[in-house]
Specification:
Layout: H1 7-24, H2 29-48, H3 64-74, H4 77-87, H5 91-102, H6 109-127, E1 151-158, E2 165-171, E3 177-179, E4 198-200, E5 207-211, E6 217-223, H7 232-238, H8 240-248, E7 252-253
Parallel strand pairs: 1-6, 6-7
Antiparallel strand pairs: 1-2, 2-3, 4-5, 5-6
Helix pairs in contact: 1-2, 1-7, 2-3, 2-6, 3-4, 4-6, 5-6
């Protein structure tokens, strides 16, 4: 699972996959090129993190200026406008905003982009060495057991010793994976199969929409048995045609990605 990978390898794998998809999918190239640039900044921040790590997420405010510079030069209009607003804040305001996001506050997607981008290397480093304790008789969490943030995507893998697929959820911040029932909505815990439709696109058969008609939410699922080289975070980000399909059916995503979708 991704959870067991070193933080640097998580980011390196994302870079490799994003560059691969940028060459294959012209419609996602601009978004993926920005994602690569942000991921490279995250990798640099990861290398400069002090040991031991600060317990206060607000300490990551020092890594903000390069991110703002990058977005103002290469980002879409909405993110550029948000970057200008972030730059106008005091250091204390930025620190508090990071603490709030780490603690679970959301806010507008364009605003969350910056907090999530800066806190990703911090969350990866903090989670390293942490192991989820198995809890018998306890319902699986619909948010990350480590940091409390919502899932970014589902992942499907072959279940050991079985011909069925096992499902896990990937945290939208720290990338921890945890097991979750295949027939259950992580938004409202709906379990009736007829209320949990699935949508696919012929061009990307290893990714599907997992929707819920009870709460009208959705996540994408990345099937690694169909494409072992896929990366859940990158493939979820790049597969925008599925987001358009889901939005056309009036579903809302449990957690927006770095592109705000």
């Amino acid at each position: 699972m991704i959870s067991s990978a070193a933080p640097s390898e998580v980011l390196n794998r994302r870079l490799r996959r994003a560059r691969e998809l940028a060459a294959l999918w012209p419609f996602a190239r601009e978004m993926l090129e920005l994602f690569c640039a942000v991921t490279e900044l995250q990798r640099e921040a990861l290398e400069r993190l002090p040991v031991p790590l600060p317990k206060d997420a607000g300490a990551m405010a020092r890594y903000f200026p390069p991110l703002l510079d990058l977005v103002e030069k290469r980002g879409p209009v909405g993110l550029v406008e948000a970057a200008i607003r972030w730059r106008a804040r005091t250091v204390a305001d930025v620190e508090q905003a990071l603490r709030a996001f780490w603690g679970g506050e959301k806010g507008e997607p364009a605003e969350r982009f910056f907090a999530k981008a800066i806190l990703t290397p911090y969350s990866l480093a903090r989670r390293r060495g942490w192991h989820e304790e198995p809890s018998r008789g306890v319902e699986p969490a619909n948010v990350c057991p480590f940091c409390g943030h919502p899932p970014a995507a589902s992942v499907l893998r072959e279940e050991k010793g079985s011909e069925t697929l096992a499902r896990s959820l990937v945290c939208s911040l720290c990338s921890h994976e945890w097991s979750f029932p295949r027939v259950r909505c992580p938004g409202c815990t709906e379990e009736r199969p007829e209320k949990l439709p699935r949508f696919t696109a012929d061009e990307i058969p290893w990714i599907r929409i997992e929707a819920c008609d009870a709460c009208r939410s959705y996540l994408k699922a990345v099937d690694l048995t169909r494409n072992p080289g896929a990366d859940p975070v990158v493939d979820e980000l790049a597969s925008t045609p599925l987001d358009i399909l889901a939005r056309g059916e009036k579903y809302w995503k449990l957690e927006v990605n770095l592109a705000g979708m």
